[in-house]
Every structure is written in structure tokens, then in C-alpha cells.
């Protein structure tokens, strides 16, 4: 057998092991999702675990995972609960109504206060029709999640209802070598508006594989802040899939700071005219971290507006990856789309791979894109130094400014403050 | 104001400097005493902007020989921030925009760097706010500019005012104004010049770098130097600037050619 096919067999086996663990976890949960699970399992069985030979995974090497047999998470014990309680104290959002906490993929009732808009699948038992229905569900990690998630947050914002207070969902991954699969479904009914804060934190070298599906119906508006601040030993693969109906507005800010390897797939599918989509992202990594953002904005109707700004800061030997797809087919006339990816490399060993991918067929559209890779501008540094600020402090000021462009607009003040402090400490 | 007994602030001797291996300054000599205003004029490419950057310590410029003494100390090996806290201030021809850094924060960090260098405690945010708002009056700047990003979206005039505001705050003993008049309408020019004049003290000096004598109607120099090909070819009084305005540079270059 050739070396290549040995590697394929190894990856196939590894994925089968992950699927077994996912199935074990699913069987241990009280959810009855038989047909959804069976379809997802079949999808995973058809696939192999990704390698750098797959175009979608060209720059993000998952081979280090192959040595780690991630296991379905056991029931939370007292020590984990205590640890989770401590961690949660640092994550308070003063403005939020309630707090929904999942520990290792399972709803933690003792740590949560459910706001009226949120239900938990393990408690209601009623499977919403929308679950698992947004496009892109056949991607291998999304299917793995569907095959094995043990609980799900169901957020439903009623017709014309406007939630003033943000909803906070916290997913904690606590422990070593665990396979943790958080799941969330958001349904913003027509004319509704809400702010959603999703946070991923944890300790230990585990694998979090999350899926969040968000339906933004006619004229609804969702502001979504996603923070990934997991343990720097962890692997994080996350999917955020959004379906946007006519006249809806979706604004996302994703902050990627944690994990040793992280990948965020954010996919927006337009299902009606005149939608507005804003995707903002900030990645700030160091050491040997790898952070990959793959975005897709699939327009399908006229008069859509989509703006994207992804900023990445790479220090030490870290590696950033950005791939931004924007599809503007013939029927999506009068689309106005922009995409900008700005990268700041702070060390000679840091690296970024950036690939804007615009596929524009419609001819009456405005589309702009750009990608920049730079180090700190020497002239800006000199300007600050010429005012008495030493080089080190000048660098910190410039990095801080680069990052804060994404933090300052955060609409939830207490999160903005927490993130500002994080950036201040990170730049020291 | 010329006072023969004043102490020497800047003494440049036989200064040679190059960028990317190309020599730009070729034996420049200049002495500036406290209380004096010196103008350096010259055509584009004569080396006058290079001279200002060399004085401030821009890393792209290498001093290959000669000395720069500032208040009796050789500063040619000092880092830019060390020259700044020692009292050298360069008002940039093209002040940089720094998105994301608030002007107020930038000014406070710079001011505290100077205090720290003098062994003084850092000033707190509230005391600083009082101080800086008082200084904005010198350049007639609206305080709202303090809360915008440094120079971002500022007009040419606003950027130059912001430079003079920094000078007012940092109180340098040598201020180098590099083409401060470029891009300014006459009102902005007057405001900026008034600011510079208000800040003049018997213990500090100004070095004004300009193509045109227009600015020198408002900041009146004690000495005018003409630079050509990396060194000073003629030094005179204010009348020299007026003659340059009336007759251009050619006669001077010809005179120079005849002399050599």
C-alpha cells in the first residue's frame, strides 16, 4: 500500500472513531432526532477527514488531531462545575437578560437563567422544523455535529418583537481529549430584532465542533457577536450558518483569540431581495496558534448589500488564514458588495494566507475587494517616536489601534469593555 | 532675537548623511543659539527636508560623518524618542494619520513620556485634560479634534495646527518646522505662525524650513540660510529671503558657480 493511501485509511479510521464517539454521545442524550441523525451519520461515513490536499483545508493542517483520540464528554462532575462557576464569573454581561450556559455541549441548568426567548432542546423535547435545514449541512464537521450534539439552544424571537437586552449564550469546553459539540438554532421571526452574544471558552486540550444556525426572516434584524476564546491547547471548529430573508439585516462581529487550531466557517445564504449583511472579524493570535476564517456570502436576489472587514494580527510563529467567498449570480443584479482583509504581521516567523474569492456573474453590480498584508508602518512608528514615545510603546499603540477598530463598534458595552481590556493586555 | 551671549542650542559640524547609500547631506555646518529663529531655504532636492529628518533621527537616514551637538550633547546616536525628550521637536511636512489612536490619548502618552524622561510623575487624565484644553487656545483649535483619531480626516490646516499644538504641549528647546506653510491658506498660515510666535522663548530656538518666503512674513527669521546640494551655500539676514523671492534662486547658484 502506498504512503498516500495509508494516510487516507488512517484519516478514514480517525473520522469513523469521531463519529462513533458522536453517536455514543447522541445515544446518551434524551433527544429523539432519529432521521436527522441517520442522514448526518451517512454523510460523515461518505467523507474522509480533511487534509491539506483538500482545497478548503489547504492552509489549515489538522493532522496533529489524528494523534488524539477525542472522547464523548462524561457527565459534569463537581470539580468541573466549580471550575465552570469560576470561569463564568469573568464573563458577566451586565446588560444581558439571563444567561444560557452549556458545559461540554450539555445544558447546565444550575449555571443558567433562561430568558423568555430561549428554550433548551433537552427540556422541550420538541424538534423545531428549522433545525439542520440551512444549506451547507453536508460539510463534514457540520454533519458530525448533527450526528452527535447532545443538546441545543433554541432562540425564538417572536414576530415584531424587539429585544432590548442582548441574549448571552456561553459554551464551555472543560477537560482533556473531549469531543464537544455545541448546537444553537436562532429563529428571528419577521420584523423582530435582537442582539445575540455567543461565547466559547474553556480549559484543556479538547475539540469543540460547534454549529449555530440563524434564520433571519423578513425585515428582521440580528446583531451577532461571536467570541472564541478557548484554551490555547484546544481545537475549535465552528460553523455559523445564516439564512437571510427579504429586507432582513444581519450584522456579525467575530473575535478569534483562543485555541491552538481554530476554524470558523461563516456562511450567509440570501433568500430574498434587499438584504443587508455585515461581517466583521478580528483575529489576534501568537505563539504557534493557527486561526482560519472561511466566509461565504451567497447572494441570490437583487438589491443585496454586503460589507465585510476581516482583520488579522499574527505574532510569534502564528498563522492566519482567510478565505472569503462572495457569490453574485446573474439574478443578483444591483448587488453592492465589499470585502476587505487586512493583516498585520508582528514577527518575521508569523504568516498569513489570504484568498478573496469573488464569483460575479451579474453585470449591474458594485463589488470591491482587497487584501493587505503589512508590518507596522515605519513612518507611523517614527511619528510617534518623534514625540518622545519609545519604540516599544509606539508599536503597542499601533497594534492596539488596529485591533480597536473592530472592538470599539461593539454594541454591548460590557463586552466591549472586557474586550478592550483583553486587547490592552494582549498588546503588552 | 540675536543675543551674542546666548547659549548654543544646536551645533552641526561638517554633517554628512545618506539614505540607501546615496549621500544627501555633504558637509553641512550650522549653529543656532537660544532665542534665534533660523530659516533654511532652498530648491527641492537641496537636502533641507533630509536635514530635518536627520536631526529628528529618522531611521532611514544614516549619518556618515560629522557631529550634531544639541545643548552640548552629541545626539547623532540617540533614538528618535530620546532626542524628542531631550528637546528636539520636528513639525512634519506631512503629519501622519493614525486611525484608531485618539489625539487626546496620543498627546497624553507623549506628554507623559517627556515627564518620565525628566524624572517627573505621570500626569493623570483629568489634569491632562485641563492642560491640553488650555493649549488648544494657542492654535485656536476646536477641542473636538482631541477626540478624533490622530490627524485622521483632518484638513491640511488642521493637521498643521495639530503639529503646533504638540509643540505647545511638549515645549521643545529646538523646534524644526518642515514646510509648515505647505498647503495652508493665508488664514491658517497666520494662525499657525501666531502660535509659533507665542511659543518663542529666550531659551528656545526655531528652525524654519521652507521654499517660499511667504511664511517668513509672519515668522520673522534672524538668519536665512540657503541650501544647495547638501550644504549651506549662503547665509544672510531676512533680506536674503526677500531677494530670493524677487529674483529666484538662479543668481545665487550662478554666483556660487563663479565663486568656485
Question: Could you name the key traits of this structure?
Answer:
A: 428 residues, alpha/beta, 2 domains, eleven-stranded mixed β-sheet, 24% helix, globular, B: 260 residues, Rossmann fold, six-stranded mixed β-sheet, 8 helices, 29% strand, FeS-cluster_ATPase_SufC (chain B), Fe-S cluster assembly ATPase SufC (chain B), ATP-binding (chain B), nucleotide-binding (chain B), ABC_transporter-like_ATP-bd (chain B)
Q: Would you write up a description of this structure?
A:
The complex is a heterodimer of chains A (428) and B (260). Chain A is of the alpha/beta class and 428 residues long. Chain A folds into two domains: 3-272, no CATH class; 377-428, no CATH class. Chain A is built from eight helices and 21 strands. In chain A, strands 1, 4, 5, 7, 8, 10, 12, 14, 16, 18 and 20 form an eleven-stranded mixed β-sheet that branches. In chain A, strands 3-2-6-9-11-13-15-17-19-21 form a ten-stranded mixed β-sheet, with helices on one face. In chain A, helix 2 packs antiparallel against helix 5 (140-148), helix 6 crosses helix 7 and helix 7 (391-407) runs antiparallel to helix 8 (413-427). The N and C termini of chain A lie far apart (52 Å). Chain B has 260 residues and is an alpha/beta fold. Chain B has one domain (8-259): P-loop containing nucleotide triphosphate hydrolases (Rossmann fold, 3-Layer(aba) Sandwich), CATH 3.40.50.300. Chain B has eight helices and twelve strands. Chain B has helices at 48-56, 80-86, 103-117, 125-136, 156-170, 186-199, 238-247, 250-259; strands at 8-19, 22-33, 37-41, 61-70, 73-74, 88-91, 98-102, 149-150, 174-178, 205-210, 223-228, 231-236. In chain B, the strands form three sheets. Chain B has a six-stranded mixed β-sheet with strand order 6-9-10-3-11-12, sandwiched between helices. The radius of gyration of chain B is 18 Å and the shape is globular. The two termini of chain B are 33 Å apart. The mean pLDDT of chain B is 93. The chains are: A alpha/beta (428), B alpha/beta (260). Chains A and B meet through helix 6 and helix 7 of A and helix 2, strand 7 and helix 3 of B.
